[in-house]
Structures are given as structure tokens and as C-alpha cells.
Design goal:
The protein contains 25 helices and 31 strands. An 8-stranded mixed beta sheet has the order 6-5-9-3-2-12-15-14, with no helix packed on it. The structure holds (3S)-3,7-diaminoheptanoic acid and zinc ion.
Length: 882
């Protein structure tokens, strides 16, 4: 698509099967820095389900056609129409035929990082969603599945490693030249978005995996020369993922080889190309000296996620891009479960819910809200969102909660069996669960169609005379763009009634039935549930484990919440109860701060946090989560309208200081108790201890005492791993302006040659909540370590400023908005996907107070008025302003 063209919206309701199918694809790709030649031989046939007598219309993007023939004979110029965007064979014979298409592309000039491009000299590809059409003319849609054979040829010197999808077939020199080639064959029919090739000078580590049925698989991870020692953790995560998928879902790997390649320039996290995953190197490379515990956890999750796509995404793919959640929501659910099994389930749940609330809830509440399965799009790349991924995973989780472990597995088994080899839809997915369990999921399907976060209002009354406890539940769903009226959803509300001794009471409903597995099914706008044999007033623990992605309000008092924070058997709600107290306080304290006043910190919060700190039986990783004070974004979301980021920042700073002072002895003792023992290991238990120790360090520093800051300095100076070193650096950068510059300089000096670590250094500085941050960010864009062309650098610096520094991004003088707008406009000319991502940082602009709202709107309007804006950016800016 050229920069000026405005594509018409694509609508789910307009879906039609393809007119032509492709059975096999033979590609011969001759790599060259500026003129790579692609010879494609496509075996096509008319689709019996398509329109009879149709022309062959193939998609292209920025392509140059060199030659074209049909069944071996060159096509006359009158027989086809070609533009960079499409190749149409006007009146093809209506039978099986072969097209041979030769195109030339320029990998070095490809700054969009879609199609065939170069990353630090390595040739690589990215085809999802619509990048294959930047390599050759093709029906670029996920319901055209073909068997691919790929020959890759390159200068041996430039690209000694040549990788493709599937299994290696042959390789050798191109006689009489300095070139060599490799042929790969992928026996599994796949859509073209799963195509990949790599050519470059890469080092590798290898390993082996024997599948459940005894098949040997060769595993390889390819990295830039000299970085192999950092790929070990990714390999370990890969092998564990392969085993887990066999054990938990019965999914076995299906090729002789599985390769992963790490590249430095990548628009997203990673890509699940069949047998040849390509990764952003940030999610492969790790060593104790360069990666934090969070990096290790991300690597584990993303390696698993891409691997799990082999079944949920590749063996069963999507019929069209509206069904994206079919592979993404389901695969996120699967990677969440894998990490829960590999680490602590409650802690994983807490961090997943925090991610959902911080990224998806604002999406649902703003102008970019869309259903888990959208019904229209202008640019599909803008729908790889928290709603499709994270809320999509929540929907699958709810299905499991409603059907139970066995019912869910039965549905999954049926899906994997019935649709293997298909390009499927959400309806077909749900039908498997309905059929396997004999249930009707019509109302449940609304989760895919209705956008917005449902609200649940719950109140309870206990009748001392009848020993009955009544829970009144009301659900509502606010209007969202394009959806003014909503229907009630089916909401699985897991709950417990906690007796005064802290134990759960039996959940016997008035009619004698049990709330199955402790879950109430909310289906109507208003419902009441009466529990009997409740001898004492209980405290309800609602939405346990965050069983539904809803916004819950209840009549629980602060005392009730404190009780739950101390006694709830559900760890998620134990965590959440204290968070709810803190959030309630922060909302009130923000209003007070705007009025020039201060509010005392609720004793209940200090008590809840103190009790958590003192409970030696708790997992340190859990305690670390419990100690975190809700973020400024959490508070802004809770306030919802007329948001003043400075007031929120002030209220939160005061709260952290007060908690620090009130709990100093306990924090110090906990810090001391969790001193490192032995050498660094990234395992979950060790990481949990570090997380707790670092949380204590941070909260203590929030008190601002010289001792606390000296402790942070010592922590920084003596750290023997990146987790501790970087955490201490962050504490110093935020809380100790006098120590900030020296610490930042020392850190940079030590890691200047390591781009992934430099990204941490950039991101941290972009988050400093002081007016000088703006100039600092501007200055860093001119730093030799920064590059506008590298997505990781841009996300670290500009993305962190826009997404994680609310007071400075939303400066009252508008300079923060202007800086990000300038960056978006500049980046858009090279890499529209990256620009559109950054632009989404404006998604909550309407919730700001009037002055900042006006400045955000001006920035958005300036972007909108930029000539030649990409379809990606104009889609986001257009919807943001609607
Ligand atoms: N499927 C890819 C994402 C592709 C994004 C295209 N804009 C990675 C993943 O979700 O696993
Ligand atoms: Zn995915």
C-alpha cells in the first residue's frame, strides 16, 4: 500500500472463500543486498467454493515484476495487469495451472521490517500479517494453505547459514561461483504468513528433543556471532515447552528440526513461522550479567508462546484475520498455563491480571476499544492488541472455569482433532466445546463480539435469624465505539464466603444445589443468590483468581478488605484486597492533592502490608507483588475522567513515603533476611527472593532517608547480577537525584557495547518523573547508542516516555505530547507499524483534565494532518479522534 492510499475497511461480514487455491509453492530466492530475485512457481486451481470463471488476483506490495509465465509459456502483456500492489491474470483457463512469477526486492531499503529485510546484515523475513506480498505476488490471506519448497541462494561469505521452513533437503555450492544454496521442504500446508527464510553469518547452539512417540528433533538457536553463551536459557525453555505441550495438551512436534533465529531489528516480540521461529533478540539472549529476572521470565514465556503456536496457529490456523484471537488468545492462555506450572501459579496470575488491567482495560475504556474478535478493520497490524491477546486469553480461561478441567480438555481435544489442517473460525472453536460438553455457548460467544469491560456491582446481606446470606449481583457493559447497546454476558464469578475464623464456608444455595466448583454463573442484568446454613456473618471473597475480566464494585468495607488481605485462602484476592484499599486511598488522596490537601494513610493498609511482610509462610514473590503500591496509571484508570497526572504522582509519592516510614523496621528486616545466597540462578524461587529484597529496597528508598539511599548505592555497587544492579540503579535514578548521574554513567560505561542493556538505560531515564526528563529524552535521541531505525531502541526511549512517564508525557505545556508526535511523524515515514504502536500511547487522552486533553488533541490533529501518513498511523489517529 502506498503512503497516500486510504484502504477501504475490511468487514467480517464480507468474507468470501478464495476463488483460486494454491497447492504447492516452489520458491527460489537469490539473496542480494539490494536486488534479491524471487522466482515463485505456484500450482493453482480454481476453488470449487469460489466464484466460477474468476481471474487470478494476487496481492503485492512494493513489488517489481520481472517475468511471468503460465504453464511454462510467457504471458502476453494483454493477458494480465500488474501494479506494485496486485497482479491479475485476466482470463485464466479454469483448471489446475502453474504460474511462474519473478520479482525483485530490495532487502536493504526495507525499513518497514515487513517482507524480506536485513537486520545487522542478516537477511530475514517477517510475513504476518501481510508481508509475504512484499516478497512475491500471492493470494496473501490465511485461508490459502500450500506446501512450500524453498531454495535459498546467497554468497557463501555473506550468508554461510541458510534456513527455511520445514526440513532441510539438500545444500551445496553453486558450481563455478562464490555462492551456495540450501533447499528446505515443509510438508505441512500453511498460509503464507508462516513463511520464513534466514540467511546470514550466525553462530548456533544445538540440542535434541525426543518426542512422546520417540521421534528425534534437532533443535537449533541461531544468534549473532559471539553470543551463543547467552542462548542456553532459551534452549532450556524450548525443551520444557515441548514436553509440557505433550503432557498437558497432547501436542507433539511434527518436523525433524526446530530452529530459532534471534535478530536485532524486529517489529514485535517474535514470530511463529513453521519450524523456523524468528525472534527479537531481546527474547532470546540472556546471561546473569545482562538480563534481569523479568527478562528470563519473558524469554521463557515467549519461547513457549511461539512454540505452542505450532498447533494453535499453524496446524490449525485462522480463516481470516478477524479470527486472530483464535490463535493469539488461545496461545497466550497456553503460555500463561505453562509459566504457571513452571513457576508460582498465584504470582503468575497476579502479574497477568496486572498486565490485563494496565494494558487492556484502558483500551476497552477508550476510543480504540474493539471486540476480542473485531468485525471491521482498516489495518490489521493495528489489531495485535491487548484485547485480542490478553482479553482473548481471559475468554479461553473463562471457558475453562465454566466447563471445568475435564470439560475444557475434552473441548480442546476435539478442536485439535476436528480442525487439524483447517483455517478455522471462532464459531468452530466454540462448537467443539459445546459439542464435547453438551452445552450451549451462544451467550458465552458475546465475549468475542461485545467490546468494553463489564461492570459487576455486588452487595451482600446476612440474615441472622434464617442463617441465610444473599448476594445481589448487577452487571452492566458501558457503550463503546460502534456499540451503543449491549446484551448481558455470561460471567463466571468464582467466590468464597469467608467465616470469622478465616475459613471458607460451604457454598450451599437455597435450593440445595452447590455453586459448582465455587463458581456462580451470572447471566442476567440482575440476579440474587441465596446461600443457606451460614451461621455467622461472612465476608465474601469475590471474583477469586480473577475468574472474569470485569470491573468489580462491592459493598465491602475497609475492615472487610483488611480481613481478606489477612485471611483469604485465595491468594489472588488476598493480594487484591490490599490493592483495593490502596487504590481507594489514592483516588481520595489525588482529589485532596488537587485541592492542596493531604490525607492520612489508612491504618488498614499499613496493617495489611505489615501482616503480609510478617507472614513467613508466604512465597517471597507473592509478598513482593503485595508490597507494590498501585501504579499512577492504575490510579488514573480508576479515576477515569478529568485526570491530573501531577496530583496522582503527588498522592502516590506521599503514600509510598508514609508506608516506608511506618514499616521501616519490617522492611529492613525483610531486606536483610533475603540477602543473596550463592551464585545467581534465574529459577523462580531465587527470583522471588530477589524480587522481595528489591521491593524492600525500593520502598525504603521512598522514605528518602540518607540510610535508605546509601543502602541503594551499596546494593548497586555490590550487585553481581543485572536484576539487582538495574533495580538499584532505578531506585537511585528515581529517588536519589544527587546519586543519579554518577550511577547512570557507571552503568553506561560498563554496558555500552551491549544494545539490550543500553535499552534498559534508555528506558529508565525516559521514566524519570521530573521536568528535565523531556530534555534528557531529546538529548538521548542524539546519543550514539540510539538509532531511530531500531524498534527496540525507539520503544525503550520514546515508548517508555509515552507509556510509563505520565507526568512528563502529559506535561501541562504540551511539550511531552509534541515530542512523541514529532517522533511518530518521523518514524512513520520508515516504519509505519512502529509509529502506529507509539501513537497508541495517546489512547486515554480523553480522560485527561481539559488543559492536557487540549494539548493531546492538538498533537493528534497535527499527526492526522501530516501529508502522506501511513494507513497504520492514520487508522489509529482517526479512531483516536472519532
Ligand atoms: N504472531 C506474531 C505477531 C505478528 C504481528 C504482526 N504485526 C507473534 C505472536 O503473537 O506470537
Ligand atoms: Zn502469538
Amino acid at each position: 500500500m502506498s503512503r497516500d492510499a486510504v484502504p477501504p475497511p475490511v468487514r467480517l461480514g464480507d468474507y468470501r472463500p478464495p476463488d483460486w487455491l494454491v497447492d504447492t509453492v516452489h520458491l527460489d530466492v537469490r539473496l542480494h543486498p539490494t536486488a534479491a530475485r524471487v522466482l515463485a512457481r505456484l500450482a493453482l486451481r480454481p476453488n470449487p467454493e469460489g466464484r466460477e470463471g474468476s481471474p487470478i488476483v494476487l496481492d503485492g506490495d512494493d513489488l517489481q515484476l520481472k517475468s511471468l509465465s503460465l504453464d511454462g509459456a510467457p504471458l502476453a502483456g494483454t493477458a494480465y495487469v500488474v501494479t506494485p500492489q496486485a497482479l491479475t491474470v485476466l482470463a485464466p483457463p479454469q483448471r489446475a495451472l502453474t504460474l511462474e512469477i519473478e520479482t525483485v526486492v530490495n532487502p536493504t531499503a526495507n525499513t518497514k521490517l515487513m517482507g524480506l529485510y536485513r537486520s545487522s546484515g542478516t537477511y530475514c523475513t517477517q510475513c504476518e500479517a501481510e508481508g509475504f506480498r512484499r516478497i512475491t505476488y500471492f493470494p496473501d490471506r490465511p485461508d490459502v494453505l500450500a506446501v512450500y519448497t524453498t531454495r535459498i541462494e546467497a554468497e557463501r561469505e555473506e550468508a554461510p547459514v541458510l534456513l527455511g521452513n520445514g526440513n532441510p533437503v539438500e545444500a551445496g555450492p553453486v558450481e563455478g561461483t562464490s555462492r551456495h544454496y540450501a533447499v528446505w521442504h515443509d510438508p505441512w500446508p500453511k498460509p503464507c504468513y508462516l513463511f520464513a527464510l534466514v540467511g546470514g553469518r550466525l553462530d548456533r547452539i544445538t540440542d535434541e528433543f525426543v518426542t512422546a512417540t520417540g521421534k528425534k528433533v534437532e533443535l537449533g538457536i541461531y544468534v549473532e556471532p559471539g553470543k551463543t553463551e547467552r542462548a542456553g536459557y532459551a534452549m532450556d525453555a524450548l525443551k520444557r515447552s515441548m514436553r509440557w505441550d505433550e503432557e498437558v495438551f497432547g501436542c507433539e512436534y511434527d518436523l525433524d528440526v526446530f530452529n530459532i533465529v534471534a535478530v536485532a531489528d524486529f517489529n514485535m516480540g517474535a514470530m511463529e513461522n513453521k519450524g523456523l521461529n524468528i525472534f527479537n533478540d531481546k527474547y532470546v539472549l540472556a546471561s546473569p550479567q545482562t538480563a534481569t529476572d523479568a527478562d528470563y521470565a519473558n524469554i521463557e514465556t515467549i519461547i513457549a508462546h511461539e512454540y505452542f503456536h505450532n498447533w494453535t496457529g499453524n496446524r490449525i490456523t485462522c480463516r481470516d484475520w478477524f479470527q486472530l484471537c483464535l490463535k493469539e488468545g488461545l496461545t497466550v492462555f497456553r503460555d500463561q498455563e505453562f509459566s504457571s506450572d513452571a513457576r508460582s501459579r498465584p504470582v503468575k496470575r497476579i502479574s497477568d491480571v496486572r498486565l490485563l488491567k494496565s494494558h487492556q482495560f484502558p483500551e476497552d475504556a477508550g476510543p480504540l476499544a474493539h471486540p476480542v474478535r473485531p468485525s471491521t478493520y482498516r489495518e490489521i497490524n493495528n489489531f495485535y492488541t491487548a484485547t485480542v491477546y490478553e482479553k482473548g486469553a481471559e475468554v479461553v480461561r473463562m471457558l475453562k472455569t465454566l466447563l471445568g478441567e475435564e470439560g475444557f480438555r475434552a473441548g480442546m481435544d476435539l478442536y485439535l482433532d476436528r480442525h487439524d489442517g483447517d483455517a478455522a473460525t471462532v464459531e468452530e472453536f466454540l462448537a467443539c466445546f459445546a459439542d464435547a460438553n453438551g452445552v450451549d455457548l451462544t451467550q458465552f460467544a458475546l465475549w468475542y463480539a461485545q467490546s468494553g469491560t463489564p461492570q459487576l456491582a455486588v452487595s451482600g446481606t446476612w440474615d441472622a435469624a434464617t442463617h441465610r446470606y444473599t448476594l445481589d449481583v448487577a452487571q452492566s457493559l458501558p457503550a463503546t465505539p460502534g456499540q451503543d447497546h449491549k446484551q448481558p454476558m455470561v460471567i463466571p464469578l468464582a467466590l468464597g464466603l469467608v467465616g470469622p475464623d478465616g475459613r471458607d464456608l460451604p457454598l450451599t444455595l437455597d435450593d440445595g444445589s452447590n455453586a459448582e466448583r465455587g463458581v456462580l454463573r451470572i447471566t442476567a442484568p440482575r440476579q440474587s443468590f441465596v446461600f443457606r446454613d451460614i451461621a455467622e456473618r461472612p465476608v465474601p471473597s469475590l471474583n477469586r483468581g480473577f475468574s472474569a475480566p470485569v470491573k468489580l464494585s462491592s459493598d465491602l468495607t475497609t475492615a472487610d478488605l483488611l480481613f481478606l488481605a489477612r485471611h483469604d485462602s485465595d491468594p489472588f484476592n488476598r493480594f487484591d484486597a490490599a490493592q483495593t484499599i490502596a487504590l481507594g486511598h489514592l483516588v481520595a488522596a489525588t482529589a485532596a492533592a488537587r485541592a492542596g490537601a493531604d490525607l492520612p494513610v489508612p491504618d488498614a493498609l499499613v496493617e495489611a502490608l505489615g501482616a503480609t511482610l510478617a507472614d513467613g509462610a508466604l512465597d517471597p514473590a507473592f509478598v513482593a507483588q503485595a508490597l507494590s503500591i498501585p501504579s499512577e496509571a492504575d490510579v488514573a484508570r480508576e479515576i477515569g475522567v478529568d485526570v491530573d497526572p501531577d496530583a496522582i504522582h503527588l498522592a502516590r509519592t506521599r503514600l509510598r513515603r508514609a508506608v516506608s516510614v511506618a514499616l521501616a523496621p519490617e522492611l529492613e528486616a525483610t531486606y536483610a533476611r533475603h540477602a543473596p545466597a550463592g551464585t545467581y540462578s534465574p529459577d523462580a524461587a531465587s527470583a522471588g527472593r530477589r524480587a522481595l529484597r528489591n521491593s524492600c529496597l525500593d520502598l525504603l528508598a521512598a522514605g528518602g532517608t540518607p540510610e535508605a539511599l546509601a543502602r541503594a548505592q551499596a546494593h548497586f555497587d555490590t550487585a553481581d547480577n543485572m536484576t539487582d544492579r538495574f533495580f538499584a540503579l532505578a531506585v537511585l535514578a528515581h529517588a536519589a537525584p544527587q546519586a543519579r548521574e554518577a550511577a547512570l554513567a557507571a552503568f553506561h560505561e560498563q554496558f555500552r557495547d551491549d544494545p539490550l542493556v543500553v535499552d534498559k538505560w534508555l528506558a529508565l531515564q525516559a521514566q524519570i518523573a521530573e521536568p528535565e526528563a523531556l530534555e534528557r529524552v531529546r538529548g538521548l535521541t542524539r546519543h550514539p547508542a540510539f538509532a531511530w531505525t531500531n524498534p527496540n531502541r525507539v520503544r525503550a526511549l520514546i515508548g517508555s516516555f509515552a507509556g510509563l512517564n505520565p507526568t512528563q508525557f502529559h506535561r501541562t505545556d504540551g511539550a511531552g505530547h509534541a515530542l512523541v508526535a514529532d517522533a511518530v511523524i518521523d518514524i512513520d515515514g520508515r516504519n509505519p507499524q512502529l509509529a502506529a504502536r507509539l501513537l497508541a500511547a495517546f489512547k486515554s487522552w480523553r480522560s485527561l483534565e481539559p488543559g492536557r486533553r487540549a494539548s493531546a488533541e492538538a498533537a493528534l490533529r497535527r499527526i492526522a494532518a501530516t501529508p502522506g501518513l501511513s494507513p497504520d498511523a492514520s487508522d489509529i489517529v482517526g479512531r483516536s479522534l472519532e
